[in-house]
Design goal:
CATH topology: Rossmann fold
Largest sheet: 6 strands, mixed
Structural class: alpha/beta
CATH class: Alpha Beta
CATH superfamily: Cobalamin biosynthesis CobH/CbiC, precorrin-8X methylmutase
CATH architecture: 3-Layer(aba) Sandwich
Number of domains: 1
Radius of gyration: 17 Å
Strand order of the largest sheet: 1-6-5-4-2-3
Strand content: 5-15%
Number of strands: 6
Number of helices: 11
Shape: globular
Order of helices and strands: HHHEHEHHEHHEHEHEH
Length: 209
């Protein structure tokens, strides 16, 4: 018969198991990035993220600072937006946005022959608050972000670039790595909306828990 374990206890035990496995492998994580990496592993059960996650200098600290100051978060899927702790974010004065389902975004994307992700990033550039972008699905969102950054239309506090897939995924992530903006990127083909949300939550929980 299975032991009944409360959700927070499950999480605590899971992180203990993750820490034990890393210790057994002789893996020592950068203290600044440790909680982000462990939460991604907790979300995916995939230890390859120890190697796949790329952090620009002090990306986590800069992300936490932006969240403390009440920045908003823009995602490329409703799933990523749903996975972010709205309670923790709202305590800090922030809000999560996803414009992918907006009628004006769909109409413009169709008229221009581009993806909704591209138009969503352009719409986000019109927001007046400081922004963190959490991209877990659409490489075209990262490509659009890179263009907006180069054009001086956006200066993100942090870009979380973790789209999953095969077409333009690897290349779009490399654009962000070389963009000069603070970033956390899952190099290669792995990622997903759940990973994007996990990275955001890892930073939020360091502030609110």
């Amino acid at each position: 018969m299975f032991e009944i374990i409360k959700p927070m206890e499950i999480e605590k035990r899971s992180f203990e198991i993750i820490s034990g496995i890393l210790a057994d492998e002789g893996i020592v994580l950068d203290p600044e990035n440790e909680l982000v990496i462990k939460r991604v592993i907790h979300t995916t059960a995939d230890f390859e993220y120890v190697k796949n996650l790329v952090f620009s200098e002090h990306a986590v600290s800069l992300g936490i600072e932006a969240l403390r100051e009440g920045c908003d978060i823009v995602t490329d899927t409703q799933m990523a937006r749903s996975g972010i702790s709205k309670a923790a974010l709202s305590k800090l004065g922030g809000e999560a946005h996803c414009f992918m389902s907006d009628e004006d975004v769909a109409a413009e994307a169709k008229a221009r022959g581009v993806t909704r992700a591209v138009v969503s990033m352009e719409k986000a550039a019109g927001l007046e608050k400081p922004l963190i972008f959490a991209i877990g699905n659409a490489p075209t969102a990262l490509i659009a972000l890179n263009e907006l950054i180069k054009e001086g239309k956006l200066a993100p506090k942090l870009v979380i670039g973790v789209p999953v897939g095969f077409v333009n995924v690897v290349e779009s992530k490399e654009l962000i790595i070389n963009s000069g903006v603070p970033h956390i990127v899952a190099r290669g083909r792995k990622g997903g909306s759940n990973v994007a949300a996990a990275i955001v939550n890892a930073m939020l929980y360091q502030i609110t828990r």
